[in-house]
Amino acid sequence: MGKSFSTYETAWCPGCGNFSILKCLKTALEELGKDPHEVLVAAGIGQAAKTPQYISANTFCGLHGRSLPAAAAAKIANEGLTVIVNTGDGDSYGEGGNHFIHAIRRNVNIAHFVHNNQIYGLTKGQSSPTTSLGHTTNAQAYGNINHPLNPVLLAISAGAGFVARSFCGDQKHLVAMMKEAISYKGYALVDILQNCISFNKVNTFAWYRDRVYYLEDDYDPSDKIKAMERAMEFGDRIPIGILYREERPDYHEMNRILAGREPLVDQVRDPGTVRELMLELV
Amino acid sequence: MYNILVGGAAGQGIDTTVSILEKAFKKSGYFVYTFRDFMSRIRGGHNFMVIRFGNEEITSHSSKLDGIIALNEETVYIHRDNLKKDGFILCDSSLKGDFDAIRIPMADKAKELGNPRVAGSISIGAVLKLFSVELEYAFDIMKDHIKKDYIEINREAARFGYDSVECRYPHTGGGYKDYMLISGNQAVALGAIAAGLKFYSAYPMSPATPIMEYLSRHGVKAGVVMEQAEDEIAAINMAIGASYAGVRAMTGTSGGGFSLMVEALGLSGIAEIPVVVVNVQRPGPATGLPTRTEQADLRFAIHASQGEFPRMVIALRSHEDAFYQTARAFHIADKYQMPVIILSDQYLGDSTSTVQMYDLSRVPSTAPLVSCEDDEGYLRYRITDDGISLRKIPGKGKYFVTADSDEHDESGAITESAEVRRNMADKRMRKLEGVVKELQEPEFIGDENFDILLVGWESTYGPIKEAVKILNSEGSQKYGALVFGDIYPLPTKLLTAKAAMAKKIYNIEQNATGQLAGLIMEMTGIKCDGCILKYDGRQISGEEIADRLQKLLRKEGL
Predict the structure, then answer these.
(1) Nearest residue of B to residue A252 by CA position?
(2) Cis ω on the peptide bond leading into residue B442 (within 30° of 0)?
(3) Residues B33 and B121 occupy one common structural domain
(4) Are residues B450 and B407 in the same domain?
């Protein structure tokens, strides 16, 4: 067992799904034997994105939607860091949607935990990219007319090597998914279904609890077509577990400067390099 | 000093021809300055490059031509008015237009040699002979520009061109053969490497793309990770993320991409994470003139992003500045933990100049600005007298490194306390007091007993330098000039002293509104008496400055 992670008083609403996600994050890191000083928890902006504020680790609370590129680059700079991005559906799939797709392509070894409550919490209840059709909010006064995004299907089709779904109400399952994602070598997405006690009166804790079920023991996560079929299941029944998993070289293994070498931050340049480069221009 | 133009349509091989010619001239001892003018297209249109060379330093392009190497007739019609009286036109025999020219059957000979594409080498051979430069210099260089299997046929072609003409201009010597020939963009990349750059992220955008291309190719040797980002927002956020983790990082773009980066400038400002951003300016607004030049982002660079935070803006004046000032930008960014914006432009970025090998002892030493010592009580944003809090590298010791785009206390925890907010804003802005102390004054050029003072910034440095030389050799008035490199915060000491001596002050700028004149007025109350502005996407030359200023002075009765 590793060292223990402290958590701090939060500013979340009582009954928020974020509490159990924070608890599971702490448990997952501790069970993996991580040292808090070697962990970086990054986030953008939103209720979920406050997570780094509440755990003892190195933290990077960047701009709304922009935590993925910053976190990936921090990992590129120092492979020794365990890098986790905790942030919401608005931050990940809305404001940062482009970065989400390209973080998948880049395949830097980071874990991405999306607290997906299908609503905007910090800004008090407008629709998010995953809000269901017809859902009425203050900003969608006559119901949401934009089709919801399916983040796990998008991730699989965009080429992600690890795509999982979990539920904040099943802590044992969530801890297991987080541990798998953190241990996976490459970009790993866990879409965490989470209730928003204050602003989402449709997709409540009970709504999720009554629908989620475990993927079968003999489910084969390496079958991409099957994975996409299961990823499309989001209605009366919602499967949770590792939907898709594929082993492949990550960014560091593909990069000539990083592969098989010490972390970039520790690399020392041959002092003659600049002179050599200048001589090429003579 | 000689000046030749190579022109034609995009895709006709102007770039390769010019790259070989300029290097051959330099290897023969000449100082070379090549100015590149191209359209935003891959095929067709009209592109040209002007190679100016001689046995003394050259700081500006010139429109007075000794020769035109025309790859099509259009080139002749567009540029022949700039040809000196005894100048020449060199072209293929198939160009039958109504003009005197040295016509060589380049296309026919190339076909005969077995490859129509070697026609360019025929013109290279001919040009070298016209200027009495030995062909062997070009043979040497071809190795780097032409695939192995094609070298022999290109040499044969060059030999044919060489034998087709007579020497026309004597070689005037020159001691520059051991100098480098480098573009402004390459010099920025090299300066960054010299400063210890380890991570560069960018999205391709003219005219900044050659920086990422240079770092992609040569980064492997230098240990620089070059990552092409999905957009400029990602590019700067990646640079900031890498910098947070302890490596020197930079991003580069032009105005449009810089527009996307502005929110993250503020992140660098409030989270106090160093980042260097290069804006190789082109004319805007929006897409503007993508492959052309302008200096209209000065005010934008100074003010970009919401809120208030310390920053520095450095303008690159020359191919020397591009190296030394880029290296210095990292030092300043690290020391004060803030963004440093470097302003370059297409003219400087794409032009190549002969430059002495850079003196690496002039690169600011990278003093230990970060620490990895264990410190359980570490406060990332500790309030200090100079506003600078000790940076640590996350993951390297028993401490936590925080970073926050929200207002935060000394530990990095977010807060809405009015008192903490005041203290943190003051702490951050205090860093500028240190920056101001190490500002570099503008460079003074010209006659110490001047009557007329010119002020300018960035790449107009070279043209202004040439203009002052011309003006001081011609008129009855004496001229001096101040050209700014450090431009924000604005260094004011030398400006105030020189302005007090000047009868008249004129600002020379590549924009429509006189942004430097406005900044000078704001910071010092000094008002320029008149201006020479150019904003047609083409760089002003020394000759044009001299000419326009003389006309302006005559009009004003001076």
Answers:
(1) B225
(2) no
(3) yes
(4) no
Question: B409 forms bridges with which residues in the sheet?
Answer: none
Q: Is the peptide bond before B310 cis (omega within 30 degrees of 0)?
A: no
Give the one of A76, A278, A279 whose C-beta lies nearest to B199's C-beta: A76
Instruction: Check which CATH number belongs to the domain holding B493 and give it.
Output: 3.40.50.920
Would the pTM count as exceeding 0.95? yes
Domains of chain A: 18-279 (3.40.50.970)
Contact between A126 and A139 (Cβ < 8 Å): yes
Check CB contact of B10 with chain A, cutoff 8 Å: no
CA torsion through residues B121, B127, B129, B131, sign: negative
- Do B345 and B244 have their domain in common? yes
Q: What CATH number has the domain bearing residue B355?
A: 3.40.50.970
Q: Is the ipTM of this complex over 0.90?
A: yes
Q: What domain range is B61 assigned to?
A: 2-164
pLDDT tens for each residue of chain A, 282 residues long: 458 999 999 999 999 999 999 999 999 999 999 999 999 999 999 999 999 999 999 999 999 999 999 999 999 999 999 999 999 999 999 999 999 999 999 999 999 999 999 999 999 999 999 999 999 999 999 999 999 999 999 999 999 999 999 999 999 999 999 999 999 999 999 999 999 999 999 999 999 999 999 999 999 999 999 999 999 999 999 999 999 999 999 999 999 999 999 999 999 998 899 999 999 999
Q: Which of B379, B410, B437 is the last residue of a domain?
A: B437
For residue B406, list chain A residues with Cβ-Cβ distance below 8 A.
61
The closest of B291, B327, B19, B281 to B188, measured between CA atoms, is B327
Do B275 and B292 lie in one domain? The reply is: yes
